[in-house]
Amino acid sequence: MTRHHPESLHLMEFSAGNLSEPHALCIRLHLNDCSLCRSRVDTLDSLGAVMMERQPKVSVSESMFDSILAKIDNAPSPQPETKTAPRISILQKLLGDDINNLPWKRQLGDVSVLDITEKFPGQEEQVVLQKLVSGGKAPAHTHRGIETTIVLQGAFADQKGVFNQWDFVVLTDQDEHKPVAVGCEDCITLSVLSAPVKLTGTFTRMLNPFIK
Question: Quick one: 23 and 113 in the same domain?
Answer without folding.
Answer: no
